[in-house]
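Holo prediction — zinc ion.
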Amino acid sequence: MALKYRAPRGTNDLTYPSSEKFTAVVEAACGIMSLYGYQRIVTPIIESTDLFRRSIGESTDIVTKEMYSFEDRGGEWLTLRPEGTAPVVRAFLEQGLASKGLPQKLYYAGPMFRRERPQAGRFRQFFQIGAEAIGSRDPFGDAEIIAISDHLFKHLGLEGYSLLLNSVGCSDCRPAYVAQLGEFLTRVRDSLCVDCKRRADENPLRVFDCKNESCRQAVAEAPGIGDALCPDCTEHFDGVKRHLERMSIPFGIDPRMVRGLDYYTNTAFEFQFEGLGAQNTVSGGGRYDYLAEELGGPATPGVGYSLGIERLIMVIQAQGLDPFNPPGLDLYVAGAPGTDRDRLLEILMEMRRAGVSADADTMERGLKAQMKQADRLRARLVMIIGPDELERGEATVRDLDRSEQWTVPIKQATPRVKDYLARAERPPAEDKDSDG
Ligand SMILES: [Zn+2]
Ligand SMILES: [Zn+2]
């Protein structure tokens, strides 16, 4: 059958059990952010286009090539959010969150949109979680933001990742470095791509974002910012490193890592995984001490990170881990032919109200087909009721994992089933799904 409608390129449908695993990964990550004292913030998926132009930067790839922007029917330019930090800082200012006490520690989880070329691990709609600590410049805040990803990776049992760290300086020390970089780029100009020639003139730091091989080679010898940092930035960077060491989080320094956004100051970091190919960064972030001011608010320092859930799930799968094998149903209520169906549905609803996940047939199936459906739903127990049993006030309960069955009085079925589910441990389920 030729389908008329398909999901747009670079977007995904998630179906069971992947959908449940996805949710579980997001919940695990959010749980860790709560552990670190962050509170959830929910902002719109659309924002004014200007917000991103102003914050991310006019000459970044995101703004020049990747945003989904449109003029709405009222003539207002809107953009599907390509990242989470600018919206959170915008909301921080608009909602006057500073008055509720600083720092404000906020986390978010939701879809982001960038019109990039789809490839393994890169989507046009992707799901990010992230956190922002707004109001403090203490390097402990940077280390804490970095620690969240490390904590999550360890919690999931992941290995083979490394943390890369850099400081991109401040408005005192960066201009001199950018000028120095600009001079360097003039010397290697011939090996730069058309985009990088423009970047070299407009915003030399952005040349580090180029994925072009000849550009990457050309800038491999570029001066790093390390030596150019002012005493204040050096001290701050040392503080971040000291806290990471005390947290036993190993890191490497990459003096040319700048991240693809203009708003970063001081700390920039990335967590990269081995064996993921070109899209090996799973989480990253940095400090943005001028962003609030740039957006028209009072000068307010901040630091944050974001993490791509799809990529994280790729790593979980690549490492053969399956920490979120979703449970199936607790109970399937099956009726033999001729059983009073209304009564079955009453029992079904009673089970659900008692907290037992349960389902029953709505397709007029025979008993054998109902058993098959129970299996498909990965039901733990099946309650089988026929007309005679109903008459006697009894039901048969079968444990599908253990192939055992027993009889219970229907009147006591709900507490008995609950009790059984609570006591008996389910044997490790074999994963019936191909995607692992
Ligand atoms: Zn500085
Ligand atoms: Zn280039």
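READOUT: Residues 18-35 form the longest helix (18 residues).
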